[in-house]
Design brief:
By secondary structure, this protein is mainly alpha-helical. It has 21 helices and no strands. Helices cover 70% and strands 0% of the residues. InterPro entries: ARM-like, ARM-type_fold, PBS_lyase_HEAT.
Length: 416
C-alpha cells in the first residue's frame, strides 16, 4: 500500500472515530460518560499527532480539519460538564466584594441584608441543612455567605447524582446576584429619581419579582418602548443592566430602529463595538451600511468580520454585495464561508454568479456548503439550478444542500 493510501486510510479512520465521539457526546448523560469521551478525544489527538500527515500546498491540511473538529468537541464536552459544587462556592465568594465595596444607602443596606438572609435560607432548604446565621447587618451577611459556601462544600454533591440540587443552588446564586444589583447605593439615587420622573417605572404593577429596572425593561420591550430602553442604557451604571438593555434592543430588532437608537449604536459601531454591529444588523439599519462595509476588509480581526458580514446580510442593502463577493476569493478558509452565508442572508439575485463560481471551484467543503446554502436562501429558479447543476459532491454537508435544492426546484419557484 502506498503512503498516499495509508494517509487516506488514517484520515478516514480518525474521521469515523470522531463521528462516533460526536454521537456519544449527544447521548452522554453522566460525568463518567464525558470522561470516557474525553479519553477517546485524547487518544485520537495523540494518534493524529503521531501520524505526521502531509500539508498540501494549495488546500487545508486534513490534520487541520481534524484538529478543528477535536477542538469543537472538546468545547462541547466542557459545556456539558457540571455544574459543580466548586462553581457554586466560587460564585458565592464572588458576592462578598460586591457587598464590601458597595456604597449602600440605609435602604440599600437593608436590601442587601434581606437578600443574603433569603439566600442563606434557600441554601438551607435546598441542602436540607439550615444555615443558622442571623443576618442583621453587612458583617453578618458576609458570615452567612461564608457559612453557605461551607455548607455546599460539606454536602459533597456529585455532579451526576445531585445535578438537580446543584442547578437549584446555581439558580439561588443568580437570584442573589440580581438582588444585590437591585440594592440601592448612593450613586443610584439620582438615576432612579430621573427614571421615575421620566415614567420608566410606570409600566410596573404592584408585584416586582425582579429588580424593578429589569422588570420595567422587560415590560418596555413588550410594548416596543425603545426610548425607555435607551434611557435605562444611558443612565444605569450597571454591567448587568447594560447587557440586558443591549440584548433587548437586539431582540426588538426593527421595532427598535428609531433614529436615536440607530445613532447611538452607530457611535459604538464606529469604535468597532461588535454588540452594536450585531444590533444594527437586527434592526436592518441601512444607515449603518457605509460604516460596516469598511470593516469587511478587517482581515486582522476575523471576529469583527464575522459579525459585520452577518449584520450586512441581515440589513440586505445592495451596497454590500460586491464587497462580500470579493471576500469569496480570499485565501482565509474561515472568512470565505462567512462571506457566502452573508450573501445568502442578503438574498439578492446579483449574488448568484459569484456564489455559483464559489460552489464550483472552491476546494474547501465548508465554503462550498455555505455557498450552496446561500443560493438556496436566494431561492430563485436560477439560484437553485446553480446548486443542482453542481451534480454530486463527495462531502456530506455539500451533498445535503444539493439534495435540498433539488427538492426545492421540483416545487414552484420564481424565475430570475
Amino acid at each position: 500500500m502506498s503512503n498516499g493510501d495509508e494517509e487516506a486510510e488514517t484520515v478516514d479512520s480518525l474521521t469515523e472515530r470522531l463521528e462516533a465521539v460526536g454521537e456519544a457526546l449527544e447521548a452522554a448523560e453522566t460525568e463518567a460518560d464525558l470522561d470516557e469521551i474525553e479519553a477517546d478525544l485524547d487518544a485520537i489527538e495523540s494518534e493524529l499527532d503521531e501520524s505526521e500527515l502531509p500539508v498540501p500546498d494549495d488546500e487545508e491540511s486534513p490534520a487541520d480539519e481534524l484538529e478543528s473538529q477535536i477542538e469543537d468537541y472538546r468545547n462541547n464536552l466542557e459545556a456539558q460538564r457540571g455544574p459543580y459544587a466548586e462553581d457554586v462556592t466560587d460564585d458565592i465568594e464572588a458576592a462578598k466584594p460586591t457587598i464590601e465595596d458597595g456604597e449602600w444607602t440605609e435602604q440599600g443596606e437593608g436590601e442587601v441584608v434581606e437578600a443574603v438572609a433569603a439566600f442563606a435560607e434557600t441554601v438551607g432548604e435546598i441542602l436540607e441543612s439550615p444555615i443558622d446565621d442571623a443576618v442583621t447587618g453587612l458583617d453578618s451577611a458576609l458570615d452567612a455567605l461564608s457559612d453557605s459556601a461551607l455548607a455546599v462544600t460539606n454536602a459533597d454533591l456529585d455532579p451526576d447524582e445531585d445535578s438537580e440540587t446543584l442547578e437549584s443552588l446555581v439558580e439561588a446564586v443568580d437570584t442573589l446576584d440580581a438582588d444585590l444589583d437591585e440594592a440601592q447605593e448612593w450613586s443610584d439615587l439620582t438615576v432612579r429619581e430621573t427614571l421615575r420622573a421620566e415614567g420608566y417605572y410606570d409600566v410596573l404593577g404592584h408585584i416586582k419579582d425582579y429588580p424593578p429596572e429589569w422588570a420595567a425593561l422587560k415590560e418596555h420591550e413588550k410594548r416596543g418602548n425603545t426610548e425607555m430602553v435607551l434611557l435605562a442604557y444611558d443612565l444605569l451604571d450597571s454591567d448587568f443592566m447594560e447587557e440586558h438593555c443591549l440584548d433587548t434592543l437586539a431582540r426588538m430588532g426593527p421595532v427598535a430602529a428609531t433614529d436615536e437608537a440607530i445613532d447611538e449604536m452607530l457611535q459604538l459601531a464606529g469604535k468597532r463595538d461588535k454588540t452594536a454591529i450585531k444590533i444594527l444588523g437586527k434592526m436592518g439599519a441601512t444607515e449603518a451600511v457605509e460604516t460596516l462595509v469598511e470593516y469587511v476588509d478587517a482581515d486582522s480581526d476575523p471576529t469583527l468580520q464575522k459579525v459585520t458580514f452577518r449584520a450586512l446580510g441581515e440589513i440586505g442593502d445592495e451596497e454590500a454585495i460586491q464587497p462580500l463577493a470579493n471576500k469569496l476569493l480570499m485565501d482565509n478558509d474561515n472568512v470565505r464561508p462567512q462571506a457566502a452565508r452573508a450573501l445568502g442572508l442578503l438574498g439578492d439575485t446579483r449574488a448568484i454568479k459569484p456564489l455559483s463560481e464559489t460552489l464550483k471551484a472552491d476546494e474547501d467543503s465548508n465554503v462550498r456548503a455555505q455557498a450552496a446554502w446561500a443560493l438556496r436562501q436566494i431561492g430563485t429558479k436560477r439560484a437553485l439550478e446553480a446548486v443542482v447543476d453542481h451534480g454530486s459532491d463527495e462531502t456530506f454537508i455539500v451533498q445535503t444542500e444539493i439534495d435540498k435544492a433539488r427538492r426545492a426546484l421540483d416545487a414552484t419557484v420564481p424565475n430570475a
